[in-house]
Design goal:
alpha+beta, Rossmann fold, six-stranded mixed sheet, five-stranded antiparallel sheet, 22 strands, 24% helix, globular, binds adenosine-5'-triphosphate, ATP binding
Length: 357
């Protein structure tokens, strides 16, 4: 397994890119350490596949370098990069048995048959497919086929990195959670460097120790699932992660204080930096409905099981609050309290307050 370094990477699909908007990947600098479990998370079109194809060698970047264990592989074709990939759809040989499918990547490399047997039975056990080893792959259900595809990606122990590209797309929703946690468990057992590409926050947060969040060809934050929830570096991360996402509210900044619809909102700490557009970011989990605080009117209440999501209007601005108490009625006049140490200011999208304490 290898450490992967992406250095000053940029990519444009245009022959003569003029400005940042012409780049599918703006400048990417990133270190993925040996044996880590990473997710690349972002909406459709943010550049995930472009980055994946550059790492696997299917695409040569317009600028920058890719290093595996400090060795420059930017010019190497895919077959010389020693990478395993698991795709959205199963890649298996229907006419072969499950055993032969799992053995294929090893036999292809001339691994001795005794090692093949040992390795295939280990992987089969981890994936709980031992009883299927003698079955022809053609007869398997789509999710079992995808499990075997994953097994084929994991069976070699000499690859630099295993990359998963939206691997749960074909899996039935009720089986997804099972395979998600299985993959996490597998990573803990095989300790390979793994990169998991997805637009689904639950998949990314369940699988990865470190999540790389992308938007518009740029990395907006790299952090643990807890970091991304607790202290989003960008309003995009706050909004994209969490359900419902962070409230991002228009704010006026006067004498270092923030105001929302004319009402003062205490922030977590001092405001730093420069920037034009100022916004307050607060997660709905930290907005309380109380007797004092910002005046608001309830617009809508959604019961989502253990708690309710109350959407209230402060002036023209909609704010969401999560509450486990009986919610107020639609149209009620209420007060909202923002937990101060969780109330942040963002400037042009980027975090601009210092953490409390
Ligand atoms: N072959 C190509 N030629 C021109 N533009 C491309 C090509 N492939 C991707 N793009 C553009 O590059 C940008 C990034 O696309 P990319 O496929 O990397 O994003 P993504 O995050 O993987 O999205 P998805 O999840 O939909 O695949 C998009 O604006 C896309 O339109």
């Amino acid at each position: 397994m290898a450490k992967i370094t992406l250095s000053k990477l940029r990519h444009s699909y245009l022959p003569n890119p003029a400005g940042p908007a012409d780049y599918a990947l703006k400048e990417i600098d990133l270190d993925w350490s040996d044996g880590g479990a990473y997710a690349l998370l972002g909406p459709s079109g943010c550049g995930k596949s472009t980055l994946l194809n550059i790492i696997s060698g299917l695409l040569t970047p317009s600028e920058g370098q890719i290093l595996f264990d400090d060795k420059d592989v930017t010019g190497l074709p895919p077959d010389q990069r020693n990478i395993a990939q698991v795709f959205q759809f199963p890649v298996i040989y229907d006419t072969m048995s499950v055993f032969d499918n799992l053995a294929f990547p090893l036999r292809n490399r001339g691994v001795p048959e005794t090692t093949v047997k040992a390795r295939v039975s280990d992987i089969a056990e981890m994936l709980e497919v031992t009883d299927m080893l003698g079955t022809r792959a053609a007869g398997l259900s789509p999710d079992n086929k995808q499990k075997i595809s994953m097994g084929r990606g994991l069976v070699r122990d000499d690859v630099n990195v295993v990359m998963f590209d939206e691997p749960l797309t074909v899996i039935d929703p009720h089986l997804k959670w099972k395979l998600r946690s299985k993959l996490k468990e597998l990573h803990q057992k095989v300790r390979a460097t793994m990169i998991y590409v997805t637009h689904d926050q639950t998949e990314a947060l369940t699988f990865a120790d470190q999540v790389v969040v992308m938007q518009d060809g740029e990395i907006v934050q790299i952090g643990t699932p807890v970091d991304l929830f607790a202290r989003p570096a960008h309003t995009f991360v706050g909004h994209f992660i969490g359900s419902p996402g962070m409230n991002v509210l228009p704010a006026e900044l006067r004498d270092g204080g923030a105001y929302l619809a004319g009402q003062h909102v205490p922030l977590e700490g001092a405001v730093t930096g420069q920037g034009q557009l100022t916004q307050i970011g607060i997660r709905p989990e930290f907005v309380r409905i109380g007797n004092t605080g910002l005046q608001a009117t309830v617009r809508k209440v959604s019961d989502v099981g253990r708690h309710s999501v109350v959407e209230a209007m402060i002036g023209d601005t909609s704010v969401k609050a999560v509450t486990e108490d009986p919610p107020p009625a639609q149209g009620a006049a209420i007060h909202l309290q923002f937990q101060q140490d969780q109330t942040r200011l963002y400037r042009d999208g980027w975090l601009a307050t210092e953490a409390a304490g």
